[in-house]
């Protein structure tokens, strides 16, 4: 199924879950949710594993959920430049 999406050549591809479900709780939890962002601006490792610990140590690191959409827009080149 992923090939159907990548064939569309999106500016950004985001993979994430909607909640954490640690094996030791067998239920939804407050724990961080791993995510992956792929774009021409991405700096992550191509051989990384997609799971909680490698994602926590990835190039973006832990962020608040509210920051995710801004990061996606930035990776798509859709934000205006800001700062001095």
UniProtKB/TrEMBL annotation:
<dbReference type="InterPro" id="IPR006124">
    <property type="entry name" value="Metalloenzyme"/>
</dbReference>
<dbReference type="Pfam" id="PF01676">
    <property type="entry name" value="Metalloenzyme"/>
</dbReference>
<dbReference type="GO" id="GO:0003824">
    <property type="term" value="F:catalytic activity"/>
</dbReference>
<dbReference type="InterPro" id="IPR017850">
    <property type="entry name" value="Alkaline_phosphatase_core_sf"/>
</dbReference>
<dbReference type="GO" id="GO:0046872">
    <property type="term" value="F:metal ion binding"/>
</dbReference>
<protein>
    <recommendedName>
        <fullName>Metalloenzyme domain-containing protein</fullName>
    </recommendedName>
</protein>
<feature type="domain" description="Metalloenzyme">
    <location>
        <begin position="9"/>
        <end position="70"/>
    </location>
</feature>
